[in-house]
Design brief:
The chain is an alpha+beta fold and 366 residues long. Helix content is 25%, strand content 33%. The chain contains 9 helices and 21 strands. Helix 2 packs across helix 3 and helix 3 crosses helix 4. The model has no long low-confidence stretch (mean pLDDT 92).
Length: 366
């Protein structure tokens, strides 16, 4: 296992586009790190710089304590799994997995032993004689993973390896990759645009936007203590609700209506120091509850018109118009209202977030 250190990494292309801005972090031995963010945020570029497939414009990259900026991809001791599988169609599964070891000049017995052990880990033993075209998408992805882990390297880099799979296959492969990581213990850096993959697989997550790391933390930290509006809105499904409001006498008044949410007991400093200031009020869809008069002491009551419902089995996504602003609630199917209904709900006060309007930074409680 190897630790990785990135110090002030920048990537600027010849046309002047600054793809990655001053990126720094320490990745510990055996960690599973996931880079997540929308298309074009710089996550794949950062991964390719780690792999040596992109030059680093400035900054320093250390792998296992050694400066790796000028090392070739092969000399860095990393293995990469691509989105496209990149399997040789004319070769069997066995030959695809053995190919890299053959190029290294390893003996036939060693290669056979490694292929058999790796195939057993991945459940591919019965498919070793087949060609890639005879496999399902999930099986082909397992072969691609197998070709990487068979090399016994200390760092695995994975660039959106599940994006070509259907929803069911993604769930299965997500669990398999996590289990493989636990077995072999190699340091893994994984790139995805899917926040569900990030939340379920990662030890720590790097949320990126416009080439800048917005926040680095555990899934729990990003969910419960987001650093800004972007992180809060990116992590969670359905995404967090954001309502434009203004601080007025210890409460926030929703823009476009008369509804107020008293927050002086949760955000005493913000309510006292930001009187009259416009901000955004955030809460997660799953924090909403049906109105119950006996439970309103520590909760804020809100209401709106139901415009759409989505029945998902264990829950219903309820889309609402609250004083002209869109809101989604995640409710039990036994408690969900109907389209067209005026619906009253409540949210625990300690579940609310406040964000600056200008820069989206979270406003701290207390």
């Amino acid at each position: 296992m190897a630790h990785i250190q990135l110090v002030g990494i920048n990537k600027v292309y010849p046309n002047g586009f600054h793809a990655v801005h001053d990126f720094s972090m320490q990745i510990e031995k055996g960690e599973f790190i996931v880079f997540v963010g929308p298309s074009g945020c710089g996550k794949s570029t950062t991964l390719r710089m780690l792999a040596g497939l992109e030059d680093i414009t400035s900054g320093e990259l250390y792998i296992g304590g050694e400066l790796a900026n000028e090392k070739s991809p092969r000399a860095r001791g990393v293995a990469m799994v691509f989105q496209s599988y990149a399997l040789y169609p004319h070769m069997s599964v066995y030959d695809n997995m053995a190919f890299g070891l053959t190029l290294k000049g390893m003996g036939k017995d060693i290669i056979e032993s490694r292929v058999e052990k790796t195939a057993k880990i991945l459940g591919l033993t019965e498919y070793l004689d087949r060609k890639p075209r005879e496999l399902s998408g999930g099986q082909r992805q397992r072969v691609a993973v197998g070709r990487a882990i068979i090399r016994h390297v200390e760092v695995f880099l994975m660039d959106e390896p599940l994006s070509n799979l259907d929803a069911k296959q993604r769930v299965t492969m997500r669990a398999e990759i996590t289990q493989i990581h636990r077995r072999i213990g190699a340091t893994t850096v994984y790139v995805t645009h899917d926040q569900t993959e990030a939340m379920t697989m990662a030890d720590r997550i790097v949320v990126m936007k416009d080439g800048v790391a917005q926040q680095i933390g555990t899934p729990k930290e990003l969910y419960f203590t987001p650093a800004n509006r972007f992180v809060a809105g990116f992590i969670g499904d359905p995404p967090m609700n954001f309502l434009t409001c203004r601080a007025v006498q210890g409460a926030v008044c929703l823009q476009g209506g008369q509804q107020r949410v008293t927050l002086s007991d949760v955000y005493p400093l913000a309510m006292a120091q930001r009187e009259g200031e416009e901000m955004e009020l955030g809460f997660r869809p799953e924090n909403a509850m049906p109105y119950a008069d006996a439970q309103t002491a520590n909760a804020a009551v809100m209401e709106g018109d139901v415009t759409l419902t989505e029945m998902l089995g264990d829950n219903v996504n309820v889309y609402m118009n609250v004083d002209g602003q869109d809101v989604i609630l995640k409710l039990s199917p036994y408690e969900a209202p109907s389209v067209g209904q005026r619906y009253r709900f409540m949210v625990p006060k300690d579940a609310f977030f406040l964000f600056n309007m200008e820069d989206g930074a979270v406003i701290t409680k207390g």
